[in-house]
Amino acid sequence: MVAVDFTASNGNPRLPDSLHYVDPSGRPNAYQRAILEVGEVLQFYDSDRRFPAWGFGARPIDGPVCHCFNLNGSSTYCEVEGIQGIMMAYTSALLNVSLAGPTLFGPVISNAAKIAGQSLASGHHRYFVLLIITDGVVTDLQETKDALVKASDLPLSILIVGVGGADFKEMEVLDADKGERLESSNGCVAIRDIVQFVPFRDVQNGEISVVQELLAELPTQFLSYTRNRDIRPSY
């Protein structure tokens, strides 16, 4: 699953200094690079290569600001076909929405958790990965924590790529890499860590591979879920 940040802090997509600028030469912007590089690896773990894809923080034509809309423009289904389907839906969305705000993660995470929860309730042994690409500091930090704590018992991991030059300290809190599990507003503690965050500027400086860094914790997160649920491999 993929969620793309369409908040106004990204800059006017028609101008070259925007993080959403689509270069006529074909050179991918940071959002396109993240979709391509991460998607090229993860797509092989999805048998039908159909991906739920959303945008958030934008105002669709003739509508209010939406914090989780279908990237393909459909009002009924959110899936697109393959990585190219995500790329085409992303480019199309840039022409059909107005960038707005604020930056809210809660609705997107809740949508992803709903899909994972429905799969679990149906008895399917599937594991879901949500890729969020964002340029800004999350505005609904406590609501996001609540959504993450609630989702921590579901077959779900969340990969966050931060693009641009924002201060992403709050993202490190969501990542919970220092051993402190997230706590919700009502005092519930996350069953496990399900978030991995990587700032894209580190990748652009050649310090790390975005895919390697993003996926570093995914095997451990997956195994912690299967152990918690006592799910064993079927041979």
From TrEMBL:
Gene Ontology molecular functions: calcium-dependent phospholipid binding
What is the designated name of this protein?
A: Copine C-terminal domain-containing protein
Q: Name one Pfam family in it.
A: Copine
Which top-level group of life is the source organism from?
A: Eukaryota
Q: Where is the Copine C-terminal domain?
A: 18-233
